[in-house]
Structures are given as C-alpha cells and as structure tokens.
Amino acid sequence: MIKNSVLKHQTMKFGRQIVLLTPIFLFSFYICGCASIAKLVIGKSGIEIPQIAAHLEPILRDNKITILGKIVIQNPTESDLDLDKIYLSIEDENNNVLGKDVLNWKNPSVTPKNELESPVKIDLSLSALTKKSIIVFLQTAFTYKRLGIRVPIASKVAILHLDALKETITRPLYVNIYTKLRTNIFGYSSIDYVLSITNPISIDLLLDDGVIHIYTSDGKEIAKSNFVQTLFKASQSNQIKGTIKIGNIFGKLIREEFIKRQPLRFELSGKLKVPKTDISMPFKIESVQEVAFSLYGR
Fold first, then answer.
1. Residue-wise over 54-86: b if at least 16 C-beta within 10 A, else e?
2. Largest CA distance in the chain
3. Strands 109-110 and 97-103: what pairing?
4. What is the pLDDT of residues 42-101, one digit of tens each?
5. What average pLDDT does the segment 215-236 reach?
6. 206 and 63 in one domain?
7. Rounded-to-integer distance, Cα 48 and Cα 45, Å
8. How would you classify residue 187: left for phi > 0, otherwise alpha for psi between -120 and 50, otherwise beta?
9. Under a CB-based contact definition with an 8 Å cutoff, are residues 72 and 116 in contact?
10. pTM check: above 0.70
11. Labelling 98: which of 25, 158, 211, 250 has CA 20 to 30 A away?
C-alpha cells in the first residue's frame, strides 16, 4: 500500500467553493508484482495522478437548500481512465449526515490529457441553515486501463459556509401601506390599513409578533395594534388588513392632524421566521405618509 501526499487548493466567494484535490490513494492491483508496478506508476516513469475538482455552491430554492455545481476529473496521464460512480455525502460539523447522492460521470472513462465532469444537485432541508458549515465528502475510484491499476478515493472535497445564505433572509420585505381615517360626529375615530407585503426570496417566511404603531409628525404615539401571524410564500405577495381604533380622547388631535393633511409615521415591526427551523430575525420598517380622511365612516 502506498500513500501519496494530499494537495488542496481552496477559494471562497459568496458561498461558492472550488476545491482542487489530489486525493489520498489506496492502491489495489489486479496483476502480480505490486511493488514493481507501483514504482513504474509513480516512480521514474513520472505518470501523474489525476486531479479532482469540486465546484459547489449552496443556494436557496423552493424552500430547500440546493447544492449545485459539478465534480471534474482531469486526466494528465497517457492512459485512458475507467471511472467508478461518485458517492457524495454531506455532513455537519458533528458528522451528522444531512444528505447523500450517487452520481455518474458523463462518460464511463476519460481519455488522456482530457477532463470529464459530473453535475451535482443535492437538496437539503432548510434546517441545515442552523449549521455553521456543511462538509462534502466524496468516494469514487478510477482505473489505469494500460496498467490495470485501480485507485480508490475517499476524501473531504468541500467545506461550505452558510453565512451568505442566512444574510439573504434578512433582506427587507417589499411593503406598501394603504390607510384611511374614519371618524363620526361624536369624535370617535379609527384607521383602516392594508399592508401589501412581497417576499422577494425563494423560501417561505413567517411574520410573527407583528405590531403597527402610529405616530404624529412630532413623534407622539396615537395608537398601536397587533396583527395575526402571517405566512409569506416564497417570491409571492400577501396582504394584512385591519382597523386601529383611536377613540375620542384624540379627537381634537386627529382633526387637526388629518384635516390639515399632516403626514403620520407608521412603524411595522415583528419577527421573521423560517418555518420548521429555529431561525428568526427582527423585522422593522417605517413609512411616513398622509392618511386619507373620511367623515362619518365613508
């Protein structure tokens, strides 16, 4: 058994990782004279060991984490290489298996001085976002056809950090606020509101603990109202409708503010959650606008 050294080259950008791997090899020979053949292969003959490159990137899509990319084998030798299937395993930092897949090369062999690839598409649960990083392990083998030497490979080929994916979840929702003041001859007032909210990312988000605060232009709070937990589907819009009762105590203030068409400040806050995970983040937006005035509830 002969072990060669491991050579890795890693780069990282926006969650994308490329790993060049000269693997740890365990040689098993199909013909007699193992020692002499080994010397021929890696000794004076200077036959190069093929490299395997993993080009992998995690993305959020269809309420899943999808690992996309390809595995590439480069054959610098003078021999055709027969290729086994590729066995991929994705694990967290505690060696828990999050996903597996078996891949096939585009062709069963790669000719001298050429390369071959296998596309990668592995779906993981959104719960993987709770992990600091995920690790991709590869097992495969190739055979030097001229010499009949089979070389198994088992190695870590990528470490994918998920911080960039988590940051995309904190992107602001697109929110439009529509309001109308209603009052009556007794001075009792209320504000009808419609919140039109668009979720720009490709996973569902749950808005919880939602509260609307209304302030005058000088910062005096007029009223606040809670609203129910609302699910915003991936890349879709939804509406939240409600009425905030203000009461008579603010009658004079309301008449002055709205009849003069002074703008009010609306503050919407809550907590955004990723369903079926413990991932959540605070959510808050503000909108300053004039409120349409409607006497006698019209």
1. bbbbbebeebbbbbebebbbbbebebbbbbbeb
2. 105
3. unpaired
4. 444 445 778 898 999 999 989 999 999 999 999 998 889 999 999 999 999 999 999 999
5. 86
6. no
7. 9
8. left
9. yes
10. no
11. 25
Last residue of one domain, picked from the residues 130, 149, 167: 167
SS3 content of the chain, % helix, strand, coil (to 5): 10, 55, 35
In this structure, the answer to whether residues 212 and 81 fall within a common structural domain is no
Instruction: Give 125-158 as a 3 state SS string.
Output: CHHHHHCCEEEEEEEEEEEECCCCEEEEEEEEEE
What is the CATH number for 60?
Answer: 2.60.40.1470
Of 195, 232, 230, nearest to 209 by C-alpha is 230
Q: How many residues does this entry show for the chain?
A: 298
Range of the domain at 56: 7-167
Q: Please, is 201 exposed, middle or buried when counting C-beta atoms within 10 Å of its C-beta (0-12, 13-18, 19+)?
A: middle
Lowest mean pLDDT among 82-91, 126-135, 186-195, 227-236: 186-195
Residues 6 or more apart whose CB falls under 8 angstroms from that of 95 comprise none
**222: pLDDT confidence band, cut at 50, 70 and 90?**
confident
- In this predicted structure, what is the pLDDT of residue 22? 39
Q: Rounded to whole angstroms, how far apart are CA atoms 140 and 137?
A: 10
pLDDT single digits (tens) 155-173:
999 999 988 888 777 666 7
Which one-letter amino acid corresponds to residue 27? F
- What's the rounded Cα separation, in Å, for the pair 271 and 269? 7
Our measurement of the distance from residue 209's CA atom to the centroid of its chain's CA atoms, rounded to an integer in Å, reads 24
